[in-house]
Write a structure and sequence with these properties.
Number of helices: 9
Structural class: mainly alpha
Helix content: over 70%
Number of domains: 1
Largest sheet: none
Radius of gyration: 21 Å
Distance between the termini: 46 Å
Number of strands: 0
């Protein structure tokens, strides 16, 4: 195989993968109303609640810890440079805007991808290996509705909430740095942060978190449905789910950041 064949084959596989994600995402979106309360099936809604607890509540300690550490590191790094120019107060701008627009959704996506994305793939991959998915189809039960839709709904609801909590923890870490270095009062810090953050920053962060949620769920479930072989294939699918979801999340983040830059530049 020459270089051109390798490049072409890789491009075709990538396009086929994106096509599979698109088709599965559309099927999951159509099946989501059937897991809603009142209008959906009761069993599906209870499954969605369990997934919300697994994706959101169980991930909150790790998201909070990572955001506190990242916020303190960002404040220290920015403070080390801004102190030389007598502009230490701009650390609050850096932390508040950086987390609201960028770091909050991104850190949340990485945590959920590592925890829940791999878990989705392993769960569905095990069902594929043990022929449970085939059994569902034999009983005329749609696997997308039964397996994917509750995870889809749970991620769409909980990941933006986790991003908001990540923003709060990161901004709180910035206050810890300012308290240690300048003895800032909490009320003054909150007033400065509120003046720094604009509504479009919050909107962009929430929009990113929604897109990241769709990517993580779709990649995790697609890798699970593609699992073939024995138990070792389940581990490979879980690893591939984390790798692909992290890669696509970063690509999506670059896309949103480029759009934001071009809009503000014009």
């Amino acid at each position: 195989m020459n270089v051109l064949e390798a490049i072409g084959g890789g491009a075709l596989r990538g396009l086929a993968y994106i096509g599979g994600l698109t088709m599965q995402g559309w099927a999951g979106l159509r099946a989501t109303p059937r897991v809603l309360p009142l209008v959906g099936k009761p069993g599906r809604w209870r499954a969605a609640l369990r997934q919300m607890a697994a994706v959101g509540v169980d991930a909150l300690p790790m998201v909070g810890t990572m955001s506190l550490c990242a916020g303190f590191i960002l404040a220290m790094q920015a403070g080390a440079e801004l102190r030389r120019f007598g502009a230490l107060q701009y650390v609050m701008d850096t932390v508040a805007v950086g987390f609201t627009r960028e770091l909050g959704p991104l850190l949340t996506a990485f945590v959920v991808s590592g925890r829940s994305g791999s878990a989705f793939s392993a769960e569905i991959g095990t069902m594929m290996v043990t022929s449970e998915i085939d059994a569902l189809r034999t009983m005329a039960i749609d696997p997308i509705e039964f397996v994917l839709a509750p995870k889809y709904l749970a991620a769409i609801i909980t990941i933006p909430c986790l991003s908001i909590m990540s923003n709060a923890f990161g901004i709180l870490a910035g206050f810890g740095f300012m308290l240690i270095t300048t003895r800032y009062r909490f009320s003054m810090y909150l007033r400065y942060v509120a003046n720094s953050i604009q509504l479009h920053d919050v909107f962009i962060g929430l929009l990113k978190s929604l897109v990241f949620a769709v990517i993580i769920v779709n990649v995790g479930c697609l890798e699970g449905f593609r699992t073939r072989g024995g138990p070792d294939a389940v581990g490979r699918s879980a690893t591939s789910a984390v790798v692909w979801s992290t890669f696509l999340v970063i690509l999506a983040d670059v896309f949103f950041t480029a759009i934001f830059y071009l809009v503000h530049k014009s």
